[in-house]
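>> Question from a student workshop board

For tomorrow's exercise we were told to take the sequence and the ligand below, predict the bound structure, and bring the output to class. My setup keeps failing. Could a helper post the expected result so I can at least see what it should look like? The ligand is flavin-adenine dinucleotide.
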Amino acid sequence: MQVKEVDVIVCGGGPAGCVVAGRLAYADPNLQVMLIEAGANNRDDPWVYRPGIYVRNMQQNGINDKATFYVDTMESSHMRGRKAIVPCANILGGGSSINFQMYTRASASDWDDFKTEGWKAKDLVPLMKRLENYQKPCNNDTHGYDGPIAISNGGQITTLAQDFLRASEAIGVPFSDDIQDLDTAHGAEIWAKYINRQTGRRSDAATAYVHSVMDVQTNLHLRTNSKVSRVIFEGNKAVGVAYVPAKGRTNLGEVKETIVRARKMVVISSGTLGTPQILERSGVGDAKLLKSLNIKVVSDLPGVGEQYQDHYTTLTLYRVSNASVTTDDFLRGDPATQAKLFEQWEVSPEKALLSSNCIDAGFKIRPTEEELKEMGPEFNKLWDSYFKDKPDKPVMFGSIVSGAYADHTLLPPGKYITMFQYLEYPASRGKIHIADANPYHVPSFDSGFLNNKADFAPIRWSYKKTREVARRMDAFRGELTSHHPHFHPASPAAVRDIDIETAKEIYPDGMTVGIHMGTWHRPGKPYDASKVHEDIKYTPEDDKAIDDWIADHVETTWHSLGTCAMKPRAEGGVVDPRLSVFGTTNLKVADLSICPDNLGTNTYSSALLVGEKAADLIAHELGLQIRVPHAPVPHAPIPKGKPSTVAPRYTV
Ligand SMILES: Cc1cc2nc3c(=O)[nH]c(=O)nc-3n(C[C@H](O)[C@H](O)[C@H](O)COP(=O)(O)OP(=O)(O)OC[C@H]3O[C@@H](n4cnc5c(N)ncnc54)[C@H](O)[C@@H]3O)c2cc1C
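>> Workshop helper replied:
Here is what the output should look like for this input. Compare the format with yours to find the bug.
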């Protein structure tokens, strides 16, 4: 049925958009809601719902189309001439259909720092609880148990997690049973996952909020593979949207729009990189830019597309003992391992290795007074103004992945862990703006990565911390040279690759094991973690090597936010505390673009929370009441038995 008019149109089916569309449609079966998503429908896609395959969704291989890759328009001098690449979701469910499923929450002060009525942490805790089906034991009262989003430890926790926690304790990061209590900023934990413990499936927002409602009601109209080109205004009032086929192929690139009218409200939730583009194409943005592109100005808002923020990831690889359980053989594509693990998932998803992201433990950390002295004037200035009086704000996040998060064709054989660290509150800022009004054209994008010097010191500090943790793990067997800074070979900080015993175990009959360039000094002596008592000492030259490596390697953490900030219009704000776009009526923004400042967390929880808050605000304006609990989430539990997926490689 070609519906041409509804009450509410939601543009973009990421977590926030799914919450808004699903909650409103479920609140009133007579309210007609349309959700328009540029990517494909995620329903029953095995490459979405099986948690352990998540890295594959980042492949650009011509078949997989689950992400849009934004590339810096200009090379950056801050990254030694590199361009950053920022993939973001292009599928129903948005990031929640392809993300790493790590459950983390922002600190209470992050929300309080929005300085916005109704958005303080104490206002939001009931909504945080409303969205959760928390499946872990818990000793505090900040989690919820009846919501649609399942959170658990997944099917398995590898023993490397306990090894990591013990080593973290040894360098002064204490274990805690829950560091997602909105308060803890220095502690380690077994990391929870957006995975349903009973079904072994990913907890994506579309299954939880949209498919659930579409299974029981007929008032939620879904359009996928459809890209919103612009909002239609009558004067300043949003009365509908125009969308185009997601790919312009059939029309030879010509823009063929379909118009749908909205009787009551248009909500834009196309993500931090998508939303500002729709606004600008619709005439909402910096008047100077819009006029230069011949776009009629509806509201002059110079803040649209500005203040782009992310978190900065660096990954380091360490070798671990051959006895360790890692996903390396699975990720390499070893047929026997893949067949075994896929079958295990089909038969017993509730306890399968693939019912996990294999990111089982991690920490949030703040530097000590002593460590701050080493972190230079730029970061210390930031510390004094931003962190010092906010003890709930972590500076860095670190976690262990049981396997190499890297291209295995470039790695030597063996087993690995990845130390995955990211900077929680970068001082750097970027921006995104359209280059013209054509929805198929790529925008002008400046990630701004590392353009503030204060961002180097905490990443350098954290590289050292995670390296000290790795060295103290019982499973540690060396540092993979290619995935570390290039220290001078004579420096005490120089990395030491695989140890001789592990090398011999990998190639028992190998004739070259132990030979390096005709000499006999690599691999080195066997490692003994119990003998590691001293931290590695770094010279200024070593620090420079780390900084160069940071410039060469910092990547997105896929946590984009901030391009349509909720703050006063005079300060560059785009939306007010009710998420209404300044200078317009019947138009709201609901996604992470509204954040006026960074959030020290993996951001899925925050996107859901923004969606829940937006649903409340809109329901109130429409005179509706949100219904709890939400409609039952489909696929829970799934039937057990013989595998139905015979050859996983062919089930694209
Ligand atoms: C690879 C990856 C890994 C991540 N890992 C984690 C993790 O482990 N834990 C965690 O907490 N967070 C993680 N995140 C972050 C988290 O998923 C995001 O913060 C969250 O999805 C943001 O939600 P959103 O609703 O703001 O926007 P998005 O998720 O970006 O959704 C926006 C949606 O709008 C659609 N869209 C864009 N333009 C248009 C248009 N013109 N018309 C129609 N539709 C449009 C997009 O296709 C997309 O589906 C990860 C993200 C990615 C991409």
